[in-house]
């Protein structure tokens, strides 16, 4: 488009460009966040009544509680484990598709195949693990029948292991897609040149593939981290209620009408997530990588 | 949980309907002023409500909102058929429901309330008092609810008993009134006495005490309910049963009592006592049916659902002994939202009266729940069903569930015995404690431990 000579018209065009995003973000993101922020400073009568005002009591309570620390530790544990497994699996699946499948059509076909499990709801994908992992589930039955174990393994279901399995199953695609995307843009000639220059496969991986997939890894990490930290349902179901997360705790707060503490916890979680994501963005300049 | 999001929001058409109904009523008043006025004036005297003309009510829609075991579509459909106006049943879980009543009161007409929720709803002024005089069967409602006693037995008031939450002094009062008045917060419609479900083949002895749930013998094979407000009472019943503590009021614990209970729960969890905790009906059925647990706190129809799968399961009769044990009672009733007025309010009263007229009482009896007016429910039950569900006698013939599926063989007896045996052994009621926020925090400590 021809840049306009008239500064006010250029200004208007600028506003028009951003307006779709603003129209979505303001009512669906900014406004709710402001409401939550306001509620976190209100006082409550304990029966769901809010007294407008300004008090830091809710923050004081949230920050002064050992529970908050424990909840964050539990949530971060799930996040780190899920992140590590989705990254390893996602990276190698993408690597295989990009560098080992010679036929591009086949590569795209296999890539689409990766998305098939995601055609069903993630709740179905999660609960379908239950008959597989249970005390009388398929895995335990098979192990018992082959005589590997005498007692069914209880750790398979209603445990942290089950939570991580469900998350990895649900979220690996969020790693595969961006990593595949950034890997596909690595010039194959670069790898050939490295081979010619005598680089080992490990060196190629370390010095070329990983650094050049950084933006994909960073994007995938943002997806996985923000989804796991903002979720409570998988933890609730797959741990059999045996574990909690930051979000499950403030969902329970809402259940007993403790709106200000729930709001304060939500604001705190938002801040923590913003900090984590800006840390990721600091390490990897996604904008530059993408427009490369 | 799984019920979340099912609700459809139909506020606009309904309000439009209400406006239309109001307009209609004005026109009708002009046309037949004398007749209507006469009927209205006489209504109080004959203890009824003005008869509503079919053409005026057919546009009315009542939205009855609450938990799935209390707000049942089949019941709403029957009510709509009998009453001639539209009834929409919307299901939410307990905490989502109370949040909706409080934050969006105008999207609900009839609120499904437990005693403690009625107390909250009154406090937040989202409901209006129900005029007792307009409830035809009010005098036939069991005195459990209206007077806090039955058969000469005082109903315990640990937790928030339905009687305690039943009355307010004026239609717009925000505080409960202790003692009988002309205005009710809610109209009880379904209730039961909850205890423990267990696998008799795997437990090996008859369970009559809550302490079996925390017996190390069942390490890794026990489960408890994960709705903090009631889960903690089940835990309290266990600890009291095991002689570990004596509570002042299990339904309204002090901070020290909450600490003791939650610390003990954490200790048990660390020892591996609990295989899981459950939040929904289905989860409890799955845990038991899949062999994950052999003993757990449970709801009556869940026990029946396990038995239908040909897996033996018993609902423990935890009768009160030595000041310990007893069932945890619960009761769901109907509240009238504050915005109801005119014809819509009349329709709501008709709906309330329909609920107590027996069809619904018969329906819920067939999955083990009770009606507050058993005398009308009896008319909708076969003698065999009445004998089995209410009198605790061996079933004279096969007993079917509400949808006609065979549920119990002839000769089976209801666990826990007759209606009176069961309700007289209720020792506490579902509640929201004064220290709910603190309790919730400590319950989360237990979850994350």
TrEMBL record, chain A:
Q: Spell out the SUPFAM superfamilies in the cross-references.
A: MetI-like
Task: Mark the transmembrane ranges.
Answer: 12-43, 71-98, 105-124, 161-180, 216-239, 259-281
Where it sits in the cell: the answer is: Cell membrane
Q: Which residues form the ABC transmembrane type-1 domain?
A: 72-280
Q: Which InterPro entries match?
A: MetI-like, MetI-like_sf
PROSITE patterns recorded for this chain?
Answer: ABC_TM1
- Gene3D superfamilies linked: MetI-like
Which CDD domains would you find in this protein's record? TM_PBP2 (cd06261)
Superkingdom to which the source organism belongs:
Bacteria
Q: Which GO terms describe its cellular component?
A: plasma membrane
Keywords (alphabetical) are: Cell membrane, Membrane, Transmembrane, Transmembrane helix, Transport
GO biological process terms held by the UniProt record: transmembrane transport
Q: How does it sit in the membrane?
A: Multi-pass membrane protein
The record's similarity note reads: Belongs to the binding-protein-dependent transport system permease family. CysTW subfamily.
* The protein's name: ABC transporter permease
Taxonomic lineage from the root:
Bacteria, Pseudomonadati, Pseudomonadota, Alphaproteobacteria, Hyphomicrobiales
From TrEMBL, chain B:
Chain residue ranges for the region called Disordered: 1-20
Signal peptide residue numbers? none
What domain of life?
Answer: Bacteria
Q: Which UniProt keywords apply?
A: Periplasm, Signal
What PANTHER family has UniProt attached to this entry?
A: SPERMIDINE/PUTRESCINE-BINDING PERIPLASMIC PROTEIN, SPERMIDINE_PUTRESCINE-BINDING PERIPLASMIC PROTEIN
Q: What is the name attached to this protein's record?
A: ABC transporter substrate-binding protein
